[in-house]
Amino acid sequence: MTQMAQEEIVSNTKTVMQGLEALRVEHITLMNNLSEGSKTDPDKMEIVKKNMENIELGLSEAQVIVMLFAHLQNIEAEKQKLRTQVKRLCQENVWLRDELAITQQKLQASEQSVAQLEEEKKHLEFMASVKKYDEIQENEDNLEKSRTDPVVELFPEDETEERNNMSPTPPNQFANHANAGYEIPARLRTLHNLVIQYASQGRYEVAVPLCKQALEDLEKTSGHDHPDVATMLNILALVYRDQNKYKEAANLLNDALTIREKTLGENHPAVAATLNNLAVLYGKRGKYKDAEPLCKRALEIRENVLGKSHPDVAKQLNNLALLCQNQAKYEEVEMYYKRALEIYEMKLGGDDPNVAKTLNNLASCYLKQGKYKEAEMLYKEVLTRAHEREFGAINGENKPIWQVAEEREENKLKNRENTPYGEYGGWHKAAKVDSPTVTTTLKNLGALYRRQGKYEAADTLEDCALRSKKEALDLVKQSKVLGVADDNKRQKSGSGKDDIDDHNKRVHK
């Protein structure tokens, strides 16, 4: 029944009730008259009583209908109220979903910020525990350390020399990280090189679209599960990592890992490279426990494929040691660093820069454990080796800088007018040979001296580090000036067209 039909029924029922009420009154009057008469007719009285019963029954049923209608109206009103409430709850649910999405985005951004702050906190706590500089010295050292200091770097790259944290990833690192163990096909080489060039220059607005276009083209021609697709995924992931887009980079690296495992096999060097990149990414986010098994698996693959004494195995050991160091697993850290040192010295020789870097990293591990004597011995070993490479064997007249510093410390009370460091020889020039490792070692050993109260020795090493930095900058400036002067000479002396064309080519390069 429709709402209109129900109202008509109720209206008619009320009319019938009025009629029944009137009949009831008439029957009551009729019964009274029959009762008062001298002669009562039993049959008539019986008929009137039956009619009265029927009238009463009709009235009762009509009242039930009216009451039922009223109850239905109440139910309908409650139903409308509930519908309104449900609609309002749906609207609130949509609003809460939007708020949740926004909050989740803020949470992700906060997690990234927290990870970066945790890295900075550990960095600062370590530096504060070993040295205190004056304000000017501290600012300069912090700037230098943020660029090149491999000792306190949270998780350095493993493929080439230490990464400059103030600039994008260099081109050779992009190539090594993305393509280790896999040769880039000729059809991709030009595009691949363009992406690397733009990314290394920080021109992400160009590099990212190029990568995405290459991925789209490759997936159309070769399908998603192809080694070339994995290579481009690796490159794009490194670009995202340089932009601090860690979540996007992790998704791409996991995708690349799946493809390479499926197409190249689970024990391929390219799989190890992708595992290592993923471990480095987790390390940068502070997820050391998640990164460690990936790093260990990459180490196992490289040991099986390259042999346990290959330099790439030593690089993987360095990364694994850094992960364990951030988890305070110092016994494992020492084991990994010492094994990496054995490989470098056996395969590359004691003068290889990686030996000095690993010695510095091992010294950093000792410092975190409070083993200052062991750390001091390693720092002195690095400086002694650098001195011998530059100036020959050590003797009474040919002393490494740390011996000079300690002699100045011993003689500071005897001679207040200590000879300026420059007159002890040009050892600080040798610091450029292994920069930034030697310069870092100078500052770290100087910090230890300062902690021990050997301020004269500390000043000597810190002055040496500063001179090295200053002279390196001066040499760069001088080389630029000499280059311009040389070009001017060539232009003035040369009379032919070939000299001018050659100069223009050099400028464009």
TrEMBL record:
Repeat positions for TPR: 230-263, 272-305, 356-389
Compositional bias per record (Basic and acidic residues), positions renumbered to this chain: 486-509
PROSITE patterns the UniProt entry points to: KINESIN_LIGHT (PS01160), TPR (PS50005)
Cellular component, GO, one term: microtubule
Location within or outside the cell: Cytoplasm, Cytoskeleton
InterPro entries xref list: Kinesin_light, Kinesin_light_repeat, TPR-like_helical_dom_sf, TPR_rpt
Annotated segments matching region Disordered: 482-509
Gene3D superfamilies: Tetratricopeptide repeat domain (1.25.40.10)
Stretches assigned to coiled coil: 72-127
Gene Ontology terms, MF aspect: kinesin binding
Transcription regulation keyword on record: no
Physiological role: Kinesin is a microtubule-associated force-producing protein that play a role in organelle transport.
Family of this protein: Belongs to the kinesin light chain family.
Subunit-level organization: Oligomeric complex composed of two heavy chains and two light chains.
Protein name (Swiss-Prot/TrEMBL): Kinesin light chain
Naturally occurring in which organism (per UniProt): Anopheles dirus
